[in-house]
Amino acid sequence: MRHRLARAGARLFPVALIVAVAVALVFLALPVIAIFTDVSPKELIDSLDDDTTVDALKLSLQTTLTALVIILVIGTPVAWALATRRFRGKQILETIIELPLVMPPAVAGIGLLAALGPKGILGPLFDSLDVQLVFQTAGVVVALTFVASPFYLRQAQAAFSTVDRSLLEASRTLGASEARTFGRVACPVAFPSLLSGAALAWGRALGEFGATLVFAGSFQGVTQTAPLAIYAQFGTNFPGALALAAVLVCFSIAILGGVKLLGRLQPT
Amino acid sequence: MSGPGLEVTAKAQLGQTELDVSVRVEAGRCLALAGPSGAGKTSVLRAVAGLLRPHEGVVRCGDEVWLDTATGVSRAPDRRRVGYLFQNYALFPHLRGWQNVAYPLRGQKRKERRAHAVELLERFGVGHLADVRPGTYSGGESQRVALARTLARDPMVLLLDEPLSALDARTRASAGRTLKTTLGESDVPTLVVTHDFNEAALLGDEIAVIDHGHILQHGTASALAAAPASTFVADFTGAVVLAGIASPGPDGLTAVDIGDGVTVLSTAQGAGDVGASVYPWEIALVPVDAPVTGSAQNRLEGRVVSSTTIANRLRVTVDAGQPVTAEVTDPGAQAVDLAVGKPIALTWKASATRLIER
Lengths: 268, 358
Hints:
The complex is a heterodimer of chains A (268) and B (358). Helix content of chain A is 80%, strand content 0%. By secondary structure, chain A is mostly helical. Chain A has two domains: 1-37; 43-265, Orthogonal Bundle (MetI-like fold), CATH 1.10.3720. In chain A, helix 5 crosses helix 7, helix 7 runs antiparallel to helix 10 and helix 9 runs antiparallel to helix 12. Chain B is α+β, with helices and mostly antiparallel strands and 358 residues long. Chain B has nine helices and 21 strands. A six-stranded mixed β-sheet of chain B has the order 7-8-9-3-10-11, with helices on both faces. In chain B, helix 3 packs across helix 4. Chain B starts with 5 loop residues before the first strand and ends with a strand. Classes of the chains: A mainly alpha (268), B alpha+beta (358).
């Protein structure tokens, strides 16, 4: 009896696998497909003419790319330091860097307010420098950078630590300083991984909602990025919200596809 | 001596092993650091290159002091002019052949750097790889490009880490000759690390046998083979080492009881616990029923465990209580049946038996 049950189970298992895969596929793909099928393509394209939509897309591109540049310029050396150095408290530092990954975005926004807002810790400093972040485009960049940077840092640190150590040592014995080794060997060899890390961070920044809303607000043309515009529009102008969503989905697919492609280009 | 010599003293903790070595290599000479893996050979190279910092040590090349822990001198690796050939060759995968070789060349125009690099590549017969990235190189090609790159900086010291171990057996012979020629033309001190005694004998003017972080014996290959200072060195040089107890024997010879009532005779003097070592090529194989002839006073009987042809020689391992390996040229082996399990006798002269204290 037990034997027969076991055999039935063995036969059923592949079927169960297929069912599970099918359920997951439908559940994950349906909303994406719906965005493109619920509204006719003409309506989608027409609604892209809308001021709110255009402003939101422009702002999203501008702020996410600015955040990305900041993340790359500061994050790459940080990732290198973490990958090549051993020091006291390194694990604590790594945990702090990873914290935004698990922190609810709204909490991140509140935290940024408490740190950089007018009444925050650094408020008086920014005040004396006449720098305004809250409700400003710069504030959006700050929120995006905060939320998206761990995605790049983690990937870049992993990328640097998998670079063959003998390549770095060879560079040193061939007369190159650490800085030159970093620029001429480590970065080029890790480049595909660094790029995919950057793409992940960019994808996260494009979708950022909570921290931006809390820290920078949602003002058209100033702080209203595409996700915020979708939220603002979906009650009054559903096709417009869908059109924006469709554009974002296309971006996401392009980014994901790019990451996968880069993964394949990874040199051995 | 034409140029400056290299002087290295290093003490460092390597995991469980305490590295404690001191070597000196004159200009134009090559010292082979030989020993099993984990013995600390590579660490000596790394200490010279500045990739490992000994807790106590001195590295001096001619007038230049690269490391002196007593005075706190420790130059960064890029400020020591070494040519380090890495075991995996460590070619930069994103750079073309000539760019790899030109990597250490600074302060010249691109055109000059390329010309210099191509010239070096051509010297090693791999000029056709100038515009090819390392991904498609064969093992031998990688070794040549890496060697060209190592020499591009005009190093004061050459450090070669297992330069032939990444190659297949066929490439190894020709790559070994290339390397030997290069070393012959070089006028700088060279340290080469290898776990293979034959490789050490080929490349090194002298050999230092290292184990557990210490140099056990230092000398020419033939000196080490003729008078190994320990059973480890004897074993490492490829000798068969039979453990036994020595006592005075007939005719002024020393008799070594290796167990089961079997005795091995040696012209060397010794007493107590000893290793009786004999080289495989000094052992002859004869049928067990053959009459005893010639001057070979030693005779062991056993059964064939394996026989392998290497180049023009036949390597036969026999279980004679202790494993014994004999190496014979093919003609010598024709008279005996070497099928696995067949009984066979091994003979050699008493004068070929060296005694090493254990």
